[in-house]
Batch of 3 targets.
Target 1
Amino acid sequence: MIFLRIILIFLTFSPESLFSKQGSGIVLVYHRFDEQKHPSTSISSQNFNEQLQYLKKNNYNVLPVSRLIDFFYDGYDLPPKSVFITIDDAFKSFYENAFPLLKNYNFPFSVFLSTGFVNKNRTSDFMDWKMLDELKKNKGEIYNHSDKHKSFIEYPSTDLIKDIETAKKKIEKNLGKSHKIISYPYGESNTFVRDIVKGLGYKIAFSQHSSPLHFKENKYNLPRFSINDKYGSLERFSQIINTRPMNISFVEIINDEKNNSFQLNLKTEFNLNKINCFINSGNLEKSINDNVLVVKVSNASKNQRYRLNCTLLKNSDVYWFGTMIIKHKNKFYF
């Protein structure tokens, strides 16, 4: 039996150095607002307003994602309680129902735009360039989310580059130049995609797996917590924005496509017995072998995104590690 082993991360830091020297933050991603017919991607403006009110009342530092370039490249620390608000796809419901709220709170935000869908037709679900320009003039940053909104892992290199560059040119033509920041359609990428994005000069890139962000992250696979009505209660929201990164010193993924399974081997300074892990699909088994947390996921037969989350409660703080494994055309991508 042939296994594919991929070592993703090798980190050497302690919880103390992680927080006292570099800082950490929570990146949130939203899509639609007050569109109940899309429950997996929509949140009510009432819930969204309660979340913004909570951030304001509790003195969170709501920052633009461009600040992360300073953090990752220029030696600037993130302040305590850093939160970043991002919106994918540029649906018109954001402009109509959420943008006024963000203006009221004077919060910065970032919209990731699939340029091929920009449309001034009144019946369109998407914003037009005039609306996007208004966002930019009111603390909104507009960034690349592709042109066609097709998963990047489906493209050959030439077509992928063309799609990203087409979106970049359209944004620059209509809104001017901006930082080289991108988010992947559906949050999907692999090593091939990330290498191309890096080669095109992008500084950071966002996925859609849940985890707090810290300095030792892969800058081309940054996590974001997806927020909708189902998982957007104020109680859960307050838990998310107060989570801390689980420091992982070593991650190895063993891919067994023949048996529709994969395995993660994790090393951390935390008590392995107290770590709980969850997967959105498939069967999960957790064990400990020679001070390594072994997480095996079987029955992963569907072509989909497998989101793995591991959490630990320590001294009233919740520590969180998350990652996403994609199965596409019966192959796993990490």
Target 2
Amino acid sequence: MFMEDRFDWEKFPEDQVRRFGNLKPSSIIIGIFILIIAIIILSSSFYTVNTDEAGVIKTFGAFSRITGPGIHTKWPWPIQTVEKVSVEKVNRIEIGFRTVGKDSAGNIIYSDIPEEKTMVTKDENIVEVEFIVQYIVRDPSAYLFNVDNPVETIRKTSWSAMRTVIASNTVDDVLTIGKEAIQNQTKDLIQSVLDRYNCGIRVVAVQLQDVDPPAQVKSAFDEVQKAKEKMDQLVNEGKRYYNQVVLEAQGEAYKIVKEAEAYKIQKINLAKGEVSRFEEVYRQYVKEKNIAKKQIYLDRMRSILAGINKYIVDPSVNLNIFLQQEKTEVIK
């Protein structure tokens, strides 16, 4: 009994083939179809959002919700679909040129877009402007649903903003000293327009790549720029020389003024000293007129006879004295 009920593994494949062979072809097709539908439903019900992305869920094509990084579930296709948008990646749009690839040496190849890069300045000069716009997506739902083609919208807005800013600057500003200001003005103008469109975009930077006059007149522009640079150099040299001479003159004038002030103080002090001395002599004169007169006489003679040879003659004693500086000689 036990031996008869034992399962025969050797006959199992044949039994299964015989059993499925008895199925109708339509039943097999329906089973396969149901299996495929089940696989599609299961595979479309789960999705993964990376750490730098946001998942935008659409229900029958309309916005439903936004999901963050991780594994999520949703209603299967075609009820719901998910579109992943990078919210941290800095995207780049090229205007006036396009990157088309690399050559055999690995150098990047660019292609010019003349209709985009030709612009007119405030003083009616033509310049060719190539620039890039960097942006990130800050609102995925607005980015996907508020405009039909976000990238093309950003490109056209950026091109229009740059033309507006270039038209408000002279060719000298565009080619030389005004590039940073032009970049900042264009960035602000692009952002204000995109905000009005509610595109969900934040402009990170606008960078000018090449700003040149047209090739037909580039040599003439280069000569003009060289002449301006030479003029600026001469002007700066003149200013340096002027400042040097002025500073030296100011220093000399300051020195003369200080010397004059010192001389004035010296003379004033000498005059005060003379006045004090005179007042002292006068006080002595008032007290003793004869003594004062004799003292004045002696002081005056001392100043007159200082430094000269002198003879002293005394006839009463027949004596002559010769006085010479640092030497005395008696002559009889």
Target 3
Amino acid sequence: MRIFFISSGCGFEFQNHLSDEDSNILAGFQSIGKKRSDFHFDKFMIRQDKRKELIPKIKEFRPDFILVFRGPFLPAHYVTSIRKMKIPIGIWVVDDPYRLKTHKELVQPYNLVITQDSNSVSFYQELGKTVLHLPLAVNPDKYRPMNVGEKYRSDLCFVGSAFPIRIRYFDQLTPILLKNKTKIIGQWWEKLKNYSKLKKCVLNNPIPPDEVIKYYNGAKIVLNIHRTNNDREDNPKNIAAHTPNNRTYEIAACKSFQLTTWRTDLYQHFAEEEIASFHTLGELKEKIHYYLSREEERAEMAAKAYQNVRRMHTYQKRIHDLLEYLENHVHYKKNRG
């Protein structure tokens, strides 16, 4: 099989507009390529490669399937041109259900929609689209256990942007956060009501993945607070998110203990003895107190989650599942003649 990958063009400037997910997916393709002699892939890097080279590069490579990641910087007329070449093209969207209103228009020209959230599948089916649920995952060669210095050590650590639910939680958790050694890392945290009190705990800007990994490894508890369904007002039906976020897998791959928001699919991906979860702010407070004093239990759970994620939730595994789907799918069969 021949797969052509078009990157998202997302990512911070320090990533050269190549998001962490883009690079991890590419690593997954490379791993598959080393193991399968019948698999070949090529790529086009949005905002790095010249746009005028896209169609000629596709024609030269002659792919069986084109995978577009996220797709915000690929104009629809390119997708239409590719379809006229009788090459099936799919888009993997990874902000569901938070951006379903935007995605409703974005996915229209594609043969296949891949969504990272299981509860968003029916939304696309109602639009008449062929849909595959493919959760996010982890690159275990990048996210891995390591020893880190004092700079990265904490009792409580959170990495991510200051979306409304997180601001509300951390404002109300302020006494607990100040009582313990806490690190909050990401953008927009100046919005906290208690920012002046918590400022010493906050690194108020995004950091590269190789730094994120160190903070995960240095924490006793990594907090993984998921977003609410419509925090960007781009999910008008308020469809609930069911599938865990990418951090769930990344934290586990660092062999770090995490305390995460409960989601419907969480314990389909992990066992309850692997990852601790909470439903409410009150339960989160109780579990922070409980697990901070139980180092051995944290280590046991983290070790089990680590084994699980390396076995079942790598990008290599996700891409294997995607290829298996394509090899049995009507679009791919048509293209193969």
